[in-house]
Amino acid sequence: MLKWERKRTWSARLTDVAILTAGLALLYGLVTMSGMWLGPYHPAVEISLGPSALPAYAAYSLFRVAVAYLLSLLFAVAYGWLASRSPRAEQLMIPLLDVLQSIPVLSFLPAVMLAMVGLFPHHEVGVELGVILLIFTGQTWNIAFSFYSSVKSIPRELGEVAGLYRFSAWQRFLQLELPYAAIGLVWNSMMSVAGGWFFLMACEMFVLGQRDFRVPGLGSYLQTAASAGDTRAILWGLATMVGVIILLDQLIWRPLTAWSGKFRFEQLESTTDSRSFWLDFVRQSRTLRKLRKATFDPLLERVTLFLARRARAGAGHGVPTAWKVWVMRAAAAVAVVAIGLGAVRAVGMMTGLNGQEIKELLRGAGWTFVRVNTALLLGALWTIPAGVAIGLHPRLARIAQPLAQIAASVPATALFPVVLLVLIRAGGGMQLASILLILLGTQWYLLFNVIAGASSIPTDLKEAASVFKFGTLERWRNLILPGIFPYLITGFVTASGGAWNASIVAEYFQFKGKILSIQGLGATINKATDSGNFDLLLAATMVMALIVVTVNRLLWRRLYRLAERRFRIEA
Q1: Between 201 and which of 30, 219, 514, 536 could a Cys-Cys bridge form, CB atoms 3.0 to 4.6 Å apart?
Q2: Which string of DSSP letters, residue by residue, matches 61-73?
Q3: Per-residue DSSP letter, 507
Q4: Is the pLDDT reported for residue 18 higher than 50?
């Protein structure tokens, strides 16, 4: 007994030392990045292709992706919560989310970069903030959709219990909505970070008219290597990226996956919970435990009590005061005027398009629509059975999760030269290569959402299916498909937006100084960005957004309502 206690004490001390060391390393990294950001602006940074530069480049890119993810998570949870709480807000915010997720990263690029550089013309912070915001635009939408759909599918009896105990909005969010959405948030966060790595090449190095914007990082390293046709440098960059992704999986995502398992909605204790060595290791820390008890828990309790008292004090005042009504009306009027002015300005810009450019837009929209839906169909054929198998079998998940993370995070544009050469030799050409590249960029939205849906199926339902000896067909029809349906629709919505975004890099590619392109909206947006033709860029972006929103309104939104009405888990 004494030996065991000594061993436990030394393990706890080792955990404290490891956490302290990691904290000091993080502090040193933040100080270093701050010094670089506050330094003078360099319009064209020289990117070294030597392997010795890769550790620093990896650290820079990891920091940008992490900051963009934290911003994405805060925005997505707030946005999804507001949309789910107010039917009036939902009517505006969900169509707006459709529009925002359908706008490609390159379409955000001119406004974001010019604005940030204009705000900080003499410091590197302007370009860095621009890159982070561009990564943010590729990460946040699927998290917002996930949280919104999870809150809308909360079982009715849980909502009634929260009402019975008079939960304030804060208590309901913290004790019901956030825990119920935890599994979906974790898996969609993995996909968001993977999407950040995927678009890193487009965000860290790009040309806008006559101006060259680039920052040191893995994305700019891979882009430079691909443009130079340096296969050795590409392999070094990919190996570094894979190493970072594996490290993140072991230290971040696997512990979060194991931790989120406790929020599964079920009446029986699960016997197949996933575990994480690093989560168990961190839980041994006495320093973290004391810090939580001394600071975090009392602060959270005070905030909860304060908000609960305010909610109860204002419970009798159901009608908002006059000044609040007028403030809301004034804000709505300003928003309407701003949208109207923007629409008039956009129409004015697009009147300058000639007939040839309009025909190019329409033909390109048709070609990209065919490629996107072909890629979605091919992705669904394998991600649904694979995601169900991974979600229902934790042992398989321990092996498949890091592999899926790596595959989803590796930029397909880095592999595109090799894929393109193979397909050209096989007779496929750019048409087949573009569909494959769109598939590589969009199938992971489906896979990660299906895994989240399958892993959240209650244990008691699975045991009931076993007791009644369901066959394979009955199990899929009566248990698996209804269980994963809300998550599957979220996956299709975000995969559709991701597929249109991926067309930007799939239809227009630079390799060894040559431009390889095919007709499509993605190629049109790339050409307009390179030439600084903002009229054509705006028109192509609006056509893409209009197609995505129309499909979402006519198809996916109806399926969302069906999932909310028929496939909600109820006791």
Answers
A1: 219
A2: HHHHHHHHHHHHH
A3: S
A4: yes
End-to-end, the C-alpha distance of the chain in Å comes to 45
pTM of the model: 0.73
Is the residue at 433 inside a domain?
Answer: yes
How would you write 91-111 as a 3-class SS string? HHHHHHHHHHHHCCHHHHHHH
Contacts of 547 (CB under 8 A, 6+ apart): 102, 365, 369, 500
Complete DSSP assignment for 188-234: HHHHHHHHHHHTHHHHHEEEETTEEEE-SSHHHHHHHHHHHT-HHHH
Nearest to 515, CA basis, from 255, 340, 505: 505
- Compute φ and ψ for 570, nearest 5 degrees: -125, 150
Among candidate residues 101, 41, 29, the one with its CA nearest the CA of residue 67: 29
110's tokens: 């001119």
Q: Are residues 462 and 502 in the same domain?
A: yes
Contact 420/510 with Cβ under 8 angstroms?
no
Q: Which residue has the higher pLDDT, 339 or 186?
A: 186
Do 103 and 239 have their domain in common? yes
- If one counts the domains in the chain, the total is 2
Q: Is residue 58 part of a domain?
A: yes
Full domain range(s) for residue 14: 1-37+279-312
Do 228 and 370 lie in one domain? The reply is yes
